[in-house]
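Hi all, posting the design record for the shared folder.

TITLE: backbone redesign
STEP: 1 of 1
STRUCTURE INPUT:
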């Protein structure tokens, strides 16, 4: 699939065979897509001045997330892997051409698709505000409305940090994000941004590129801080428990593999290399890459906040599909439920499928529950190392020993959950 992504001032050729995507504007034609207009307006309305290459990175991320919506996996030869050719308007095409291969490899790792990127001039670079606001926060934290980001932001405040909270607005979570920001540490400065990606025709639902746009929002916000403007490095915190971040395949067929690679150490390392090459002084960090979700809950510095708000957080991979309720049986839901058990905090979440071990027609076909059960059985039979195989064989994951121990502890939490519900 070919896409040409550029501002509305670009002269689009209707005969070039590409899907045309208007960046930071309205499509103006039902055959075109669009993305980013509201985010740009919100950033400028807040009188924030971002680094030029941070705007370029956002343009790239908006193009990628729009392509992710436009390319239907069912139409691909294997029913999953897609091929994209993107032509993207940026302000500094010569530099970004030097990063094309790294971006393509990083996106391939994230989405398991094949990407080819080419850059042209004419990208959006908003004029700086007359009187820019340069926030005095010392860092940025991504606040999704999920349990891990709630814990992460509250832990940062308890440690004496002053983070700027950035949220990617998601239907069903926007109000929750704002409420969490208000409650954490007496209130965080909070900016909610929405990519508003729209494409003509049917949209793909898998959305494997969503973390790329979230990180781009965070990077752009980090470059607006006074600390960044003074020449310092700004930490960008992506708070995700280590088990979900690593995404180890549960079975040989990868049935019910854990979530996506949104915070995988290999992915974050590659992102960091791109930021460093761009001269963007932002350090991407996941403070919880060696902790399970249960351990995050146990160690949360604000136990009172966690006790009252944890059940309100969102973990489910099918939250919208189940009318903004937790299904209770997807991998993220199982990890969440296991974490509550491990922490001893009562779980008042209303799960659509509460009884994981129930064996009847209504509860049949729990692929993710079966996948966890199969993984636990294989470990009992063949041993942990045989089951894990080469799942951690990436060049930039760091010391493998603590990661293996993390996965073992995370699976132990899941085993306790399955035993509690009599899963066979």
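Okay, here is what came back for every position:
SEQUENCE:
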């Amino acid at each position: 699939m070919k896409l040409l992504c550029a501002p509305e001032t670009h002269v689009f050729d209707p005969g070039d065979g590409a899907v045309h995507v208007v960046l930071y504007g309205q499509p103006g034609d039902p055959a075109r897509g669009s993305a980013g207009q509201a985010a740009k307006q919100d950033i400028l309305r807040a009188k924030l001045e971002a680094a030029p290459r941070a705007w370029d990175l956002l343009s790239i991320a908006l193009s990628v997330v729009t392509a992710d919506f436009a390319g239907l996996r069912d139409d691909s030869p294997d029913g999953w892997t897609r091929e994209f050719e993107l032509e993207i308007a940026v302000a500094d095409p010569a530099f970004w051409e030097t990063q094309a291969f790294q971006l393509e490899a990083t996106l391939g790792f994230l989405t398991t698709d094949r990407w080819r990127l080419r850059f042209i001039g004419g990208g959006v670079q908003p004029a700086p505000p007359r009187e820019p606001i340069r926030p005095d926060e010392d860092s940025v934290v991504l606040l999704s409305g999920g349990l891990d980001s709630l814990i992460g932001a509250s832990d940062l405040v308890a440690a004496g940090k002053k983070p700027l909270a950035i949220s990617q607005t998601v239907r069903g979570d926007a109000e929750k994000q704002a409420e969490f920001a208000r409650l954490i540490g007496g209130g965080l400065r909070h900016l909610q941004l929405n990519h508003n990606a729209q494409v003509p025709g049917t949209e793909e639902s898998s959305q494997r590129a969503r973390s790329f746009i979230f990180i781009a929002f965070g990077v752009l916000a980090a470059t607006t801080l006074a600390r960044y403007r003074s020449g310092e490095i700004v930490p960008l915190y992506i708070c995700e428990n280590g088990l979900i971040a690593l995404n180890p395949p549960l079975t040989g067929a990868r049935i019910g593999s854990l979530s996506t690679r949104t915070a995988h150490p290999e992915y974050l390392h590659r992102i960091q290399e791109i930021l460093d090459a761009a001269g963007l002084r932002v350090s991407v960090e996941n403070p919880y890459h060696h902790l399970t979700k249960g351990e995050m809950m146990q160690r949360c510095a604000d136990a009172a906040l966690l006790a009252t708000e944890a059940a309100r957080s969102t973990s489910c991979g099918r939250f919208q599909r189940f009318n903004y309720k937790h299904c209770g049986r997807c991998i993220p839901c199982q990890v969440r439920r296991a974490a509550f058990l491990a922490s001893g905090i009562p779980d008042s979440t209303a799960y659509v499928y509460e009884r994981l071990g129930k064996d009847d027609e209504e509860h049949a076909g729990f692929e993710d529950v079966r996948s966890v059960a199969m993984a636990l059985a294989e470990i009992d039979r063949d041993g942990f190392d045989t089951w894990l195989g080469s799942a951690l064989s990436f060049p930039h994951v760091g010391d493998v020993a603590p990661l293996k121990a993390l996965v073992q502890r995370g699976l132990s939490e899941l085993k306790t959950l399955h035993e509690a519900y009599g899963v066979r």
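COMMENT: The two ends are 44 Å apart (CA to CA).
Let me know if anyone wants the other runs.
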